[in-house]
Amino acid sequence: MIKKEMWIACIGWGSLVWDDTRELPLLSKWKEDGPMLPVEFARESGGRRITLVICNNTPRVRTLWAIADAGDVPMARRQLGYREHPTASTQWIEAEIGYWDRQSQKSHGRESAAIVAWAEAKGLAGAVWTNLPCGLGSRAQRGIMPTGEAVVAHLRGLIGKERDDAEEYVRNAPAQIDTPFRKLIAEQLGWG
Predict the structure, then answer these.
(1) Buried b vs exposed e over 109-133: b needs ≥16 C-beta within 10 Å?
(2) Burial, 16: exposed, middle or buried (Cβ in 10 Å; 0-12, 13-18, 19+)?
(3) HSE (CB half, 13 Å, CA atoms) of 170?
(4) How many whole angstroms separate alpha carbon 79 and alpha carbon 25?
(5) Nearest CA to 112 among 130, 97, 99?
(6) pTM, whole model, 2 decimals?
(7) What pLDDT, in 10s, does the model give residues 62-82?
(8) What is the mean pLDDT of the chain?
């Protein structure tokens, strides 16, 4: 195990934590004392699932983190990028994978100030996280926060494998990611 002052945190709140079918090199199990971040079920992703992303003006929840098996922040960022999008371009990773690097004192991504404060308090060398925007439907809708009712209506309209995959994602999200939309989904669709 590398020294703590060399640790790079990989911060997670959704399938990154529970879905180990897509490889992400980690040196530890997921720890439940990650930064408080405003994440919500607010992004239509592949297979039409609704996934958790960092959103503006939503309540903060305690996220999770693990130690990345990477020699530096750029490597950890690439590893997370390829886990999230196996054919990711360098440009996609630069835009969609947030980071903080103690050595360079550079950061990028939603909630980077909160993440930097948390990581510095932990004495970490850096942090990486998924930085995808919210939104339903087309690219034109990216960055537009959907309502809880719109998310439930979207999920209610799914059938077959799409519905099964969407339900699996919601049900398997870590219990501490207890958001308003998750409560609404549980109430309206029974996916508790």
Answers:
(1) bbbbeebbebbeebebbbbbbbbbb
(2) buried
(3) 30
(4) 7
(5) 99
(6) 0.95
(7) 999 999 999 999 999 999 999
(8) 95
